[in-house]
Amino acid sequence: MAVADHKRGPMKEINAEEKYVLPLSLLRTRGNTSVVPLSWEKHILYLLDQRLLPQEETWLTYRSVKDVEQAIRDMVVRGAPAIGITAAFGMVLAAYGLKDKNEGLFVEKWLEKAAFMLQARPTAVNLKWAVERLEKLVREHYKMSPSNLTSILEKEAISIWTEDVKANLAIGFYGQDLLPETGGVLTHCNAGGLATGGYGTALGVIRAAASRGKEINVIAGETRPWLQGARLTAWELIRDDIAVTLIVDGAAGFLMQRGWINSVVVGADRIAANGDVANKIGTYAIAELARANNVPFYVAAPVSTIDPFIHSGDQIPIEERGPGEIITFAEKQIAARGVRVHNPVFDITPHHLVTAIITELGVLKEPYGPAIYACFS
Questions:
Q1: At 8, is the pLDDT very low, low, confident or very high (cuts 50, 70, 90)?
Q2: For residue 302, which of 180, 164, 141 has the smallest C-alpha distance?
């Protein structure tokens, strides 16, 4: 069971010498600022409860893989890269819980827990990628003592976290040139430090552009029903002194029409081999509006978000959540009682609407199939 720890301060105040904040130390050395959504300390995982932001900064304590899996389901942590990193540390906690077993039973039970973790969120491919990366180590070293294998898994989870931050910094570097020197940049949902290991993908591009002196005004769509844009994106950018204006999701087309939005940059939860993009519901509509108004539409994501085994977006599973997220607000009923609800969490933006995909390996453009293939070859 997760335990709230109100005494923990912001991540920036934690000793950067400790290995579990290595990504934050990396951000500092590059002269960048960012929030970080998790901490790993003495075999305990801490998650910043994103459901309570921006009103309250509460860190929850996790000691078991079951509770970490539930935290992912309950949206304590969200964003494809952050989910993947969290799942990796959840599987490390599973290993620590099985250290007293013999080699055969350790592997058997660990693999069972890994299969359980894979069911937490179906659309975000980073979860699957991270868990399978650890699973490969378990299968390769199945004869190793549980204690030694647990240590290997812990080091690998830390590597996954650190690699994500490095990827985000590279995405920012490659993407900054695509944004205008001045003007409005629209982003949807939250693809910042909170959604990653730190720094962010879409917000990483924005942070890098701002650090280079570009005078951009971020237009943040509120992003119903969880309001990630209003609660999380705005909160992150205000902390970094980056100009941000909040709009209702339905205002995006009007602002493009009036010339107030010069480009769009969003994150992704999964990218198919042909360049189709799964992202927060509403992204597809924004991409269509961008095409109609001749506004470039960029997707920023690490290569780990690309699923080369899925040919097109039609094959990407779309998570659906309960009706309570739509018919209630602040625990009050806002919809007519008895109304039927359809609540898909993501949608698919066809690749022909995507101007470029910004990765840590560079900027990918049409045709996306060969460009994506080159990332894995």
A1: very low
A2: 164
Every domain of the chain and the residues it spans:
3-169, 175-376
269 is catalytic: yes
When pLDDT is cut at 50, 70 and 90, the band that residue 31 belongs to is very low
Q: Tell me what percent of the residues of the chain surpass a pLDDT of 90.
A: 87
| pLDDT surpassing 70 at residue 377 | yes
Q: Is 290 helix (H, G, I), strand (E, B) or coil?
A: helix
pTM to 2 decimals? 0.89
Q: 3-169: CATH homologous superfamily?
A: translation initiation factor eif-2b, domain 1 (1.20.120.420)
Which bin fits 290, alpha (ψ -120 to 50), beta or left (φ > 0)? Answer: alpha
Q: Which of 49, 67, 240, 269 is catalytic?
A: 269
Mean pLDDT, range 272-290, rounded to an integer: 98
């039970």: which residue's tokens? 109
Label each residue of 118-171 as H, E or C. Answer: CCCCCCCHHHHHHHHHHHHHHHHCCCCCHHHHHHHHHHHHHHHHHHHHHHHHHH
In this structure, which topology does domain 175-376 adopt according to CATH? Answer: Rossmann fold (3.40.50)
